[in-house]
Design goal:
CATH superfamily of the largest domain: Glycosidases
Largest sheet: 8 strands, parallel, barrel
Shape: globular
Mean pLDDT: 96
Structural class: alpha/beta
Helix content: 10-25%
Number of strands: 42
Radius of gyration: 29 Å
CATH topology of the largest domain: TIM Barrel
Strand content: 25-35%
């Protein structure tokens, strides 16, 4: 710890001294931080920096290859009181760049020293690898971007390589002060060499190749993140995401070096008053979900696991491993004691019975935080995933930070505090790091809640003040709802409409009404959140396609703001243009576009017939001439199918329908005639899929998954969002009839 005491006479308080401190300086050799002097009886010490890889807590300054601004936080002590300075910036100098400008990547490279010339791929790229898993991923991605074969070469081989991922042991240069996510890349016309975090280094190489139109400027980069948590919170409980869609999210986060994916496993429709006010019982009717396989059932046999969509333990464990191979940590959340309707339905005897000053109509989702049996029940639920699973041979959540929820409980504060403390201590006792939603400002009381080793999401300053959380000893993550919440298709929390401001002005230490020092050692980073409040009675049928652009843009912007220095390197317009140039993560196609749009015409033979084309996202026109020969009652007939969904020629009630892979089902108010040749046209545009039968548009459609309060608790027919990925793997899987012709035509965007 770097501490300085001096003796200038003054009567200032510790806070007055802290407020007046100038920035520290560097010694002549630029190897040590020099703290400003303070008055007699006071001491000043270095509390933290936002780049401890460059200026350590002990004040040691490491060399850099180009100028880096580092924010420092100083603590002043006097007369038994302490106070903190504002962020004080120190420029750690490197050498002027006399060579190439640095390659354009997101997030921007922290340090760069340009060389001369460019590296370009030849007819084949040979990659030597120090990390086999990373190299296998990199090989496939590099082939897709460079357009030439890529061959992996073991370090033991004497063969020269074009790209070296990692150094041979005798040549290793990994510098420990880079931290676990830091890396160095050296680029010459003959070779690219990377050391340190090879996966993040590979993202930079691939992005530079794309932004450089097939070449990379020579030079040296040294790069590491400003904050360790760079996250996205995704509510997978209240709308549906396939495993394929979650892998797209992971790949996109990894593409931009975001590393913390918080998945909300259980939640429910929160506006229970809509049911109550209409004379309905939300305990029986409100939508709730628990997305993981579980052995727990209620006394009446009702499973805890959601019936509409869920993930097996094996699938979820595989997703965690998939993410981890790509530098992304999955943080699963099981939310209690509020938002717990899926659990109260298992144990109605454990619905909260204590006093509620507000939101009485939402009591059905509140577990009884005052009852010790509730904690035992929740521990039983968690143990399925925290303890070794016999089939997997390890815990489902092995190695994860585990989120315990603990937000928006409207019962007694002491009940809440006692329950939350018990739950956190239980997770700690199982060997996991717990994370929770900050609520202790709203839930003030005498019962202490453990802070050591606990992470807090600071989501709303009224529920949990940032300075209060720091003083209590919590490590904090900024996900303030005023700036970082996106609730699709509602009139609130519209982060997606505020991205230019976020890029130009927001900082990871800004919590709306509070701002803490960017260099505070307990500030881990920040996350943005996608919440699907508009579920159940408010669900319009949207899917990840409808919000993908907002997700992608948010990831790219938050990546720059959390990984990089406080001042963005480019304008918002330039950043957006670069993001478009970099495009989707390699080997992903979340919007289901065709790389070479073309009209496809088929003359089918015997059904079923494999088409074998990739699914096509909006905009498109699908035309088929067909004849239905019979329609047995209650039997579905699938016309088109693929992993992305199904076009149903005959639903169980005889109408034409669509089923997406996320289980959303739509039915048109139309039936195919039996024994008549007809022309069916499906026109897909973003947010809408139109059906035309023999030239006549079908105007009515319904969403089969949810009811609508506005329409009298009947299936929703108004305000639908039906974006449909045209499934083109198999034609006529079980269609009773003939198909005469098929035409698929992508419609170019204007």
């Amino acid at each position: 710890m770097l501490v300085l005491t001096t003796s200038f006479l003054s009567g200032k308080t510790a806070q007055e001294i802290a407020d007046s401190l100038p920035s520290p300086t560097l010694n002549a050799e630029h190897t040590r931080l020099v703290l400003p002097p303070v008055e007699e009886g006071a001491t000043v010490e270095l509390e933290g920096t936002d780049y401890e890889q460059i200026i350590s807590k002990e004040g040691e300054v490491r060399s850099v290859i180009s100028d880096v601004p580092v924010k420092t936080l100083l603590k002043v002590s006097k007369d038994g009181k302490t106070a903190y300075s504002k962020d004080l910036e120190v420029i750690v100098p490197g050498k002027p760049n006399s060579g190439n400008a640095k390659p354009k990547v997101i997030p921007d490279l922290l340090q760069w020293q340009g060389g001369q010339g460019f590296w370009k791929p030849g007819k084949e790229i040979r990659v030597k690898w120090g990390n086999r898993a990373c190299a296998e991923i990199f090989r496939a991605e590099l082939e897709s971007i460079a357009g030439v074969p890529v061959r992996l070469v073991d370090f033991e081989s004497a063969e020269n390589a074009d790209i070296v991922l990692g150094m041979e042991r005798e040549k290793a240069t990994s510098d420990s002060h880079w931290g676990p996510e830091g890396y160095q890349i050296s680029i010459t016309p003959e070779r690219i060499s990377a050391d340190g975090n090879l996966f993040w280094a590979s993202r930079t190489i691939l992005q530079a190749l794309r932004s450089g139109n097939g070449s990379i400027p020579c030079g040296t980069a040294v790069d590491f993140p400003r904050y360790s948590v760079r996250g996205m919170i995704l509510d997978i409980a209240r709308t549906h995401y396939t495993l394929s869609e979650l892998r797209d999210v992971i790949d996109t986060m990894a593409w931009f070096k975001m590393n913390d994916l918080h998945l909300v496993i259980n939640n429910n429709f929160i506006f229970h008053e809509t049911y109550v006010d209409a004379g309905h019982d939300p305990f029986k009717e409100s939508y709730s979900s628990f997305r993981l396989e579980s052995y727990i059932h209620g006394q009446d046999g009702t499973p805890l696991t959601s019936k509409d969509m869920s993930y097996s333990k094996e699938e979820f464990r595989a997703l965690i491993d998939y993410a981890r191979q790509r530098g992304v940590n999955i943080v699963p959340e099981l939310d209690t004691p509020g938002h717990a309707l899926a659990l109260t339905r298992m144990r109605p005897d454990l619905i909260y019975k204590g006093p509620m000053k507000t939101h009485e109509k939402r009591r059905c989702e509140m577990l009884d935080a005052a009852n010790p049996e509730t904690l035992t029940f929740v521990e039983q639920c968690l143990d399925e995933y925290l303890l070794k699973d016999k089939k997997l041979g390890r815990p489902v959540f092995d190695g994860c930070v585990v989120h315990v929820g603990a937000d928006e409980f409207f019962g007694d504060a002491e009940d809440y505090r006692k329950y939350t403390d018990g739950l956190l201590r239980y997770v700690l006792s199982r060997g996991y790091t717990p994370r929770l939603w900050g609520s202790l400002t709203q839930k003030k009381g005498k019962t202490p809640v453990v802070a050591d080793g606990v992470q807090v999401n600071l989501w709303n300053t009224k529920w949990m003040g940032a300075w209060e959380a720091l003083k209590l000893g919590y490590d904090v993550i900024n996900c303030n709802d005023a700036y970082l919440y996106y609730v699709p298709f509602t009139n609130y929390y519209n982060m997606n409409e505020n991205l230019p401001w976020l890029y130009n002005h927001w900082q990871p230490n800004m919590m709306y009404r509070e701002q803490i020092p960017a260099a505070h050692p307990q500030l881990l980073g920040a996350s943005f959140a996608v919440w699907n409040d508009a579920t159940d009675l408010r669900h319009s049928g949207y899917g990840i396609y409808d919000i993908w652009t907002s997700i992608n843009d948010s990831i790219s912007i938050l990546s720059q703001k959390i990984w990089g220095v406080s001042d963005a390197p480019d304008s918002f317009k330039q950043h957006s243009e670069l993001s478009r140039t970099l495009g989707a993560a390699p080997l992903t196609n979340p919007m289901h576009t065709w790389s070479q749009p073309r009209k496809v015409e088929l003359r089918p033979g015997n059904l079923p017939q494999r088409i074998g084309l990739p699914a096509l996202g909006p905009s498109y026109k699908f035309t088929v001439e067909l004849e239905l020969t019979d329609a047995p009652q209650g039997e579905e007939q699938i016309l088109l199918s693929a992993p992305e969904g199904e076009l149903i020629a005959v639903t169980k009630d005889g109408r034409i329908g669509l089923r997406r892979a996320d289980t959303m089902e739509f039915t048109y108010d139309a039936k195919l005639p039996i024994g008549k040749r007809v022309k069916l046209e499906l026109i897909g545009i973003p947010g809408e899929t139109r059906l035309i039968l023999d030239g006549t548009p079908v105007e009515k459609m319904q969403l089969n998954n949810y009811k609508s309060a506005e329409e009298g608790f009947h299936l929703r027919t108004k305000g639908l969002r039906c974006s449909f990925m045209l499934p083109l793997q198999t034609l006529g899987r079980n269609f009773h009839g003939k198909v005469y012709s098929v035409t698929v035509e992508p419609i170019p965007s204007r």
